[in-house]
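Hi W., the manganese (II) ion complex you wanted:
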Amino acid sequence: MSYAIPPAPIPAVPVAGSTDKFPVHRIYCVGRNYAAHAREMGSDPDREPPFFFCKPADAVVPVAQNDTTDVAYPPETANYHHEVELVVAIGKGGRNISSGNANDHVWGYAAGFDMTRRDLQFALRDKGRPWELGKAFDQSAPITPIVPAELSGHPSSGRVWLAVNGKTRQEGNLSDLIWSVPETIAHLSKYFELQPGDLIFTGTPEGVGAVIMGDLLTGGVEGVGELSIRIV
Ligand code: MN
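Structure:
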């Protein structure tokens, strides 16, 4: 058997402190998982069930530590936003995972940016249409190397922050997640069979905003990693 066309490369993210790479299967994202961000998006932050959307696996942009990676300003938007998030890397798949067992399925953690064409997202949202054009575009998921959980532990608190050109824009804490990582895994695995290689972007704290060509974005999650990108 041979493929009719050459298969696409497997998207992968470096593992911190190793030459290994973590192969990415799917990217799941949680919407509105911090109360103050839900409010700034015009929603009631009461604890309604989490909701999810996806990005393609090849949206990842691996960003090495102590480096700045160029990310292209995407087409067809005039309101390109940053969202800094804790990212969970799944090492062991499963369905209907209980929150009590969820950490056993986590291979590691990273910090990532859920880059968003906010104008397109809102236009689609307001018409009840899918969010792909606003969320699932090329290079929309810059990410740090993945830190194995055996090194990082399973963080339930820690600063989550992002600065643009050195000025802080987002400042939150994992302890303020509406749905914790184990609860998020429990919900998500009711709808999808999680697979090794899945990434979960867990939602962003308040302070999202627009960036323009030339901006330098730095951000991270305490105890997990920091990344730096320039919009070109
Ligand atoms: Mn997000």
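The first strand starts at residue 12 and ends at 14.

W.
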